[in-house]
Each structure stands twice: as structure tokens, then as C-alpha cells.
Amino acid sequence: MSYEPPTPPANLPTEINSSLNESTPERLREVATYAEALAEHKEREARLEESAAQEEVEERPDDLPDDVPTKATITIKEINDNRYYYWQWREGDKVTSKYKGPVNPDE
């Protein structure tokens, strides 16, 4: 172990470097633990955002309307002895439906 103080990263702002140099060893360890946890959190959030964007682009069916989320599924409802396709998805506790078309296109 060297007796020389460590060299800060070149792009570390001066005010942060000064604040760290004035801190106690206990405070520096707390900051290090926090900084590591914060970095992991930000990396995880970035991965989730990237994954969600890729899924939306890759998995969006061609016939899915713009106002229907990608998580929607197609269900069949029977109304007056006629069958119809509906997009359906959950918004919190509510199930939302949007008409897609008749099951039998001749109807």
C-alpha cells in the first residue's frame, strides 16, 4: 500500500474532489457504498428502458392500432349471436377493450 494519496479521476469536478478530501474515512466509505449502489441502479434502469424499447419495436403486431398497447391480447366476444375480435388490456384494475373486427369477415 502506497503512502501517497490516490489520484482522482481526471473528469471529477473540483468541488466533489475537495469535498471528498475533507471527509472522514467513515464518510468516504458511506459515499463509496452509496455511489456503487447508485451506479448499479442507474445501469439497471438503463437496461430496463432499452429492453422495453426493443420489445415494443420487435413485438408490435402490424395490425395493432397506435392507441393500443403492445401488451394487449385479442379476445372474442359474442354479441347477438355474432362473434367479434377485440383488443383487450389491463390498466390498473380496469380492463380496456377496443373493437378489432368480426370473426367472420363476411358479416
UniProtKB/TrEMBL annotation:
Residues 52-66 have a biased composition (Acidic residues). It comes from Haloferax volcanii (strain ATCC 29605 / DSM 3757 / JCM 8879 / NBRC 14742 / NCIMB 2012 / VKM B-1768 / DS2) (Halobacterium volcanii). InterPro entries: DUF6788. Residues 1-24, 42-70 are annotated as: Disordered. Residues 47-106 form the DUF6788 domain. This is DUF6788 domain-containing protein. It comes from the Archaea. Residues 1-11 have a biased composition (Pro residues). Residues 14-23 have a biased composition (Polar residues). The lineage of its organism: Archaea, Methanobacteriati, Methanobacteriota, Stenosarchaea group, Halobacteria.
